[in-house]
Amino acid sequence: MTNKNGTLFIIAAPSGAGKTSLIKSLVSEVDNIDVSISYTTRKPRQGEKEGKAYFFVEENEFNDLINKNHFIEYAKVFNNYYGTPKDWVEEEMRTGKNFILEIDWQGAKQVKSKLQGSVSIFILPPDYDTLRARLVGRQNDTQKIIDRRMSAAKEEISHYKEFDYIVINDNFEQALAEIKSILTATNLGSCRQSGFYESFVDKILKQQEK
């Protein structure tokens, strides 16, 4: 029987909206889903391992991969490049594996234009003050970086209408439940899984003829 196809779920959000925490919970609680590993030119942060968090490369190597059409999408964010490997993602999806792609609105737009069937989700904060408080509470960035992230957040949020689904992360558990529902409904869609269901129904009908 033909396997169900995997789906690429694009999840974007401004910094501080809780995207990373939601994705971490999704991967730990939902079967058959993982995070796509991107290439980046930024330096590894403490605890990040090669091939786990990212594939870390120098900028000249990244540019070489661009010229070889290695990426579904790529973008420059805060002076560093990020890109998603095309062949690896598509091969894994053909096995029925679902993937989450954590990117910004620019990358999401590129993926949607190149990969049919991908589903995009945008995470909104409940309000502007909460977004700033979350960034300050992380205690990872200087005030200058926080201000830059807040300015970038306005641009990110202005593109929310370009996404298939919107989730407001006011209550974490509720936001997580809503994303789980999106994932479940998507993978059950008959139009998305037409190859699987045609094979499945054909088998049932043949059994009836016996």
Strand order across the biggest sheet? Answer: 2-7-1-8-9
Instruction: Please give the alpha-carbon distance between the first and last residues.
Output: 19 Å
What's the gyration radius in Å? 19 Å
Instruction: Indicate the overall shape.
Output: globular
- Structural class designation: alpha/beta
CATH-assigned fold name of the domain at 8-36 and 98-209: Rossmann fold
Mean of pLDDT: 85
Number of separate strands: 9
From N to C, what is the helix and strand string? EHEEEHEEHEHEHHEHH
Largest sheet: 5 strands, parallel
Helix and strand arrangement:
Layout: E1 8-12, H1 19-29, E2 33-35, E3 38-40, E4 54-56, H2 59-67, E5 71-77, E6 80-85, H3 86-94, E7 98-102, H4 105-114, E8 119-124, H5 128-138, H6 143-157, E9 165-168, H7 172-188, H8 194-209
Parallel strand pairs: 1-7, 1-8, 2-7, 3-4, 8-9
Antiparallel strand pairs: 3-6, 5-6
What do you see in this structure?
It is a single chain. The protein has 210 residues and is α/β, with parallel strands linked by helices. It has a domain at 8-36 and 98-209: Rossmann fold (3-Layer(aba) Sandwich). 47% of the residues lie in helices and 20% in strands. The protein has eight helices and nine strands. It has helices at residues 19-29, 59-67, 86-94, 105-114, 128-138, 143-157, 172-188, 194-209; strands at 8-12, 33-35, 38-40, 54-56, 71-77, 80-85, 98-102, 119-124, 165-168. It has a five-stranded parallel sheet, sandwiched between helices. It has a four-stranded mixed sheet with strand order 4-3-6-5. The mean pLDDT is 85.
